[in-house]
Amino acid sequence: MEKKTGLHRKDIGLAIIGAGRIGTMRATLAASHAAVRCIGVADTDAAAANKLAEACGASIVGSDSLEVISNPAINTVIVATGEHQHVEPVLQALNQGKQVLVEKPIALKLADADKLIAAAAQSSGSLHVGYSRRFKRRYLTVKEQISRGRLGSVSGLSARIYNSRAQVFQMLKRDPHATPVVDSLTYFVDLLGWYVPDNPVIEVWARGKGGTIRKAGFDCDDVTYAVLTLADGALVNFSCSFALPDKYPSLGYCARIEVIGTEGVLMIDDDHLDQIMYTERGIPHIYVPDVTVNMAFLSSSAPGDWVGGDFWGPLASETRNWLDFVATGRPCALATPLEARNNLAITLAIEEAVASGNTVRLPETAAAR
Ligand SMILES: NC(=O)c1ccc[n+]([C@@H]2O[C@H](COP(=O)([O-])OP(=O)(O)OC[C@H]3O[C@@H](n4cnc5c(N)ncnc54)[C@H](O)[C@@H]3O)[C@@H](O)[C@H]2O)c1
Question: Is residue 177 part of a domain?
């Protein structure tokens, strides 16, 4: 159950912790939200903090997250640091009763996720985790159809995601544990739990095949295939490869999802083959600095796109939904910390199954909302 905050028409003083790619998008979006009165920015890289502060009109800026979070004008915090740097600033903010949004994955270890869940339960603030796929319209509408029971009972789901290796190197350089499974397939694991919250994953079988990513010096497979069993026997098939050539036209995810129910079937084509651009002048990759492609699937960037200096797409809708929740108490569709922990447990189980060659059993705990 969503914890009630009792907030209504609250003014927001927002701290952005981590002035990288996603922090910059969130800050740009938040700066024009009607309830946001003041912005603070912290980054251990002082130059990055100053650059973003100037761009979004922040009045508080520094390289120490605790100092910025503790400023009395700040009541709300977005943590957009790298995956292994989420825990400390989230704890700092929750311990001071602030409302917190942290980027996925909640943490890289289950013990850290548990620490954050405990801190959120003790806090007068709140914690949500950004899984921005939920806010892409084609995935959002599926949630509605499945919750209305129009497919009957879900007996099978398959999801396949592809990306170019240009992006996987960015993720693995930031943190070698931020693999495509833990960092990216997690969005689709999240969708599964969101679509069928009362049917938890109980068993995971998976295999991986190394290749070009390993040759580049990272301990990560090119291809991972997994079969998951849910509590009622329904089956899920996940496949994931972020080893497509550097210049593959994906600027983010190319995906396909199919859901089979007892009363219907639903297919989502998210490969973006419907919007292709080719230019001799090169199109900059939204996430990977210095990479340009000649051909691009234009709407394939996961968070969305810059247009005319503003940011549009799933990350924009997600940021607005969360700021609206903080300001007015309206319902919030972001993941709860428990759901995020569940996603982490499943992705780690997939990696464990690949590494050990064994089937991994998970405790039968539904991700209570
Ligand atoms: N929702 C989406 O579409 C989406 C897309 C990409 C990444 N992400 C997630 O967003 C998060 C950030 O990714 P990114 O690509 O913006 O990373 P990034 O590397 O571009 O930026 C991270 C920033 O955090 C700063 N930092 C590190 N530790 C800090 C600390 N203790 N205090 C303050 N600043 C600190 C770094 O200096 C860096 O500027 C990750 O969790 C990632 O998985 C989400």
Answer: yes
> 86 and 110 share a domain?
yes
Question: What is the rounded distance in angstroms from the CA atom of residue 210 to the CA atom of residue 193?
Answer: 28
Domain with 52 in it? 12-130
Q: Which two tokens stand for residue 70?
A: 């503790």
Element (H, E) at 302: none
Co-location of 114 and 158 in the same domain? no
Does the CB atom of residue 77 touch ligand 1 within 6 A?
no
Tens digit of pLDDT for each residue in 31-50?
999 999 999 999 999 999 99
Binned at pLDDT 50, 70 and 90, residue 170 comes out as confident
Q: Residues 125, 250: one domain?
A: no
Mutate to test the pocket of ligand 1, among 81, 90, 175, 251 (most ligand atoms within 8 A of CB): 81
Distance (Å, whole) CA 354 – CA 185: 15
Atom of ligand 1 nearest to the CA of 48: 39
Report which protein residue has its CA nearest ligand 1's atom 4. Answer: 303
Q: Rounded to whole angstroms, how far apart are CA atoms 341 and 129?
A: 10
Distance (Å) from CA 174 to ligand 1 centroid: 9
The residue contributing the CA closest to ligand 1 atom 25 is: 18
Q: Specify the residue for token string 């001799």.
A: 280
- Do 140 and 241 sit in the same domain of this protein? yes
CATH of the domain at 109: 3.40.50.720
Q: Answer whether residue 71 is part of any domain.
A: yes
Domain endpoint, select from 88, 104, 130: 130
pTM above threshold 0.85 = yes
Per the prediction, the chain carries an average pLDDT of 94
Which among 186, 37, 20, 8 is positioned nearest to 113, based on CA atoms? 186
- Give the total number of structural domains in the chain: 2
Same domain? 101 vs 174: no
Testing ligand 1's pocket by substitution, the residue of 26, 43, 168 carrying the most ligand atoms inside 8 A of its CB is 43
In a domain, 322, yes or no: no
Residue 20 Cβ inside 6 Å of ligand 1? The answer reads: yes
Reported confidence tier of residue 1, pLDDT bands at 50, 70, 90: very low
**Tokens read off for 253:** 């995810």
